[in-house]
């Protein structure tokens, strides 16, 4: 085997790795783009391809100049964390973007695997990730439909009987509650953290609308 043949093999293999990184990143990115997430089609492709390039360069520079072959690749793990952190936000009373951040992290891991030549493991992992992203949301919605948590803030006249009556309304609608209250002047603010099915929450909302003693309520 001549040096020209070896060089041609190295170049071809690197091109295959880049192409595979774009395909894998594109498959995962397409799901994120379909769901209109912050890190979409092109972003995941860039992350996966970039991780592949860093791994290739890390191995090649170590072979040419000596040193630790994983030094550059190791920094991909910490570097991609900054991208993931940018996708995590707090909104609507909860943390959002954790799945997108995890997908960014996994895309980088797949890119490093491609750069290192672990094609079979990357292929299996890609299939598993796509199943989780496409199929598992249906189970997630099914679980959410079984139990939903809402925090209700009800303003009503300051009266012990009124507070107990509100708690009974929630229980009668099939919700479990963690009640809290505090007085503000002639009014009483009741905080009800309620757990139950979405239809139970809708029944509570209807009853609160029809209750003459309820001045305001928020959830």
Short description:
The protein is an alpha+beta fold. It has helices at 3-34, 41-65, 71-87, 98-116, 119-134, 136-146, 160-172, 198-210, and strands at residues 89-91, 94-96, 148-157, 176-184, 187-196, 216-218. The chain is elongated and about 90 Å long.
- Could you estimate the helical fraction of the residues in percent? 55-70%
Order of helices and strands: HHHEEHHHEHEEHE
Which structural class do you get from the secondary structure elements? alpha+beta
Query: How much is the average pLDDT?
Result: 81
Number of domains: 2
Shape: elongated
Biggest sheet layout: 4 strands, antiparallel
Ends apart, CA distance between termini: 73 Å
What does this structure look like?
- This protein has 219 residues and is α+β, with helices and mostly antiparallel strands.
- It folds into two domains: 3-143, no CATH class; 147-218, 2-Layer Sandwich (Alpha-Beta Plaits).
- The chain contains eight helices and six strands; from the N terminus they run H-H-H-E-E-H-H-H-E-H-E-E-H-E.
- The protein has helices at 3-34, 41-65, 71-87, 98-116, 119-134, 136-146, 160-172, 198-210, and strands at residues 89-91, 94-96, 148-157, 176-184, 187-196, 216-218.
- The strands form two sheets. The protein has a four-stranded antiparallel beta sheet with strand order 4-5-3-6.
List keywords for this structure.
219 residues, alpha+beta, Alpha-Beta Plaits, four-stranded antiparallel sheet, two-stranded antiparallel ribbon, 6 strands, elongated
SSE layout:
Elements: H1 3-34, H2 41-65, H3 71-87, E1 89-91, E2 94-96, H4 98-116, H5 119-134, H6 136-146, E3 148-157, H7 160-172, E4 176-184, E5 187-196, H8 198-210, E6 216-218
Antiparallel strand pairs: 1-2, 3-5, 3-6, 4-5
